[in-house]
Amino acid sequence: MLDEDFARIRAHRNNIHRYRRLLGTRLSDIERHFIERRLAEEQTMLKALAAKTFPVAFTPPKGQPASSSFGGGGRPSPNFALECLRKHTQ
Predict the structure, then answer these.
(1) Label partner for 21 (CA 20 to 30 A): which of 41, 43, 52, 68?
(2) What pTM was computed for the model?
């Protein structure tokens, strides 16, 4: 199951990369709107799949201030799982 999720994540990332590259080309208004919509859909699907694949919640232990964990921030970035995946799939 995890291998399938990784394959889906890679497919979404590839699609996002392709759509971003296409947005840098000369497009009609209709084409641009279509690609922008597809890009937003792919990003939404990628975030949902990453959240399902990496259901990690970082909370400090009881009695410990949030600022003492993760180097002062208390929470990783919202895209923490995606950032980790990017590092390991490149």
Answers:
(1) 52
(2) 0.61
